[in-house]
Write a structure and sequence with these properties.
The structure is a single chain. Helix content is 32%, strand content 23%. Strand 2 and strand 3 form a beta hairpin. The longest helix is centred in the first third of the chain and has 17 residues. The N and C termini lie far apart (35 Å). The model has no long low-confidence stretch (mean pLDDT 91).
Length: 148
């Protein structure tokens, strides 16, 4: 990454501007990868919840939105789920996902959370490698998710 392409990560409103655009890109990407998930129904949280809780982060390179991720509460004490994790395809390979994970984990710790979970399917081998390199382990489906 060139020196002029400074990376910043900060909480942003996921319902507006470039943050909303990243989510729209992610939804399109996941819908193409997992069309069968349309049968699963909506998650028990909304992007408005992420905005209200200030748990949605946007990574910017040189001021331009490049990736995102958020946290939502799970129905167990001390647990949250990483949601809406995405890095634009042309920005991948720069360790942005790892940087977002580190900041999401720090945010979870600040909120007293000790367990983080996420959903990532088999058609995303690069993302699975990122999560596993970061210490996440595979498990069965949880919360409202179906098994892949």
């Amino acid at each position: 990454m060139a020196a002029e392409e400074a990376v910043s990560i900060a909480a942003e409103d996921p319902t507006a501007g470039e943050a909303a655009g990243l989510i729209a890109d992610l939804v399109g990407y996941l819908t193409a990868l997992y069309p069968e998930d349309d049968e699963e129904g909506p998650p028990p949280w909304t992007v408005e919840d992420l905005a209200r809780e200030r748990t949605f982060l946007v990574a910017r390179i040189g001021g331009e939105a490049a990736g995102c991720g958020g946290l939502t509460i799970l129905p167990w004490p001390d647990a949250m789920e990483i949601v809406r994790m995405y890095v634009q395809p042309h920005r991948r390979g720069r360790r942005l996902a790892e940087r977002l994970l580190i900041d999401l984990e720090a945010l979870a710790r600040e909120r007293g959370v000790g367990v983080l979970m996420l959903r990532c399917g088999p058609r995303q081998p690069q993302a699975l490698r990122v999560y596993e390199r970061s210490g996440y382990v595979r498990r069965a489906a949880f919360a409202h998710h179906r098994e892949h």
